[in-house]
Amino acid sequence: MTENHHADALVEAIRLRRMMGSSLITDSFGESRWMGALVNTRCLGDLRFKKYGVTPEPQVKTKLLEGKDWAYLVFVSDGVSSVLSDGEVVDLARDAPDPRSAAERILEFVQELGGEDNATAIVVPLAGWGKIHGPDSTRELRDYRRIQAIGSERLRRM
Description:
The protein is 34% helix and 10% strand. By secondary structure, it is of the alpha+beta class. The strands form two sheets. The protein has a two-stranded antiparallel ribbon with strand order 1-2. The longest helix is centred in the C-terminal third of the chain and has 14 residues, at 99-112. It is globular and about 50 Å long.
């Protein structure tokens, strides 16, 4: 169900072009920005861009979750989703003793990797909480990323 509302995503690009025509610019890092400034186009802030198509209007999706087959839902801000993959978020939350601990694991790892944006994680327990287990398929990736991030905080301060 995850979808980032970036200006170059198909649904967002169509919506924005309908309102304003094309105003998508790619910065020197290869990241697409709406009006040359915004990566996300559905957000609560950035009110000065409202007349250009930026909106807090959510994109609503419906999915019926069958009882005990689901353990939790994780809601994250772009400060998390721009740093971690969906698999990493799931693996960090899995087998946590409670939802708060699961959210803290996610946020601590984002900080450890040097996340620079504000980061929010909300973990909602469902009927299968504590009953559904699985392999930690991103453990090696997270260990590698952790090693690569060593010292990056010092470089950012320079």
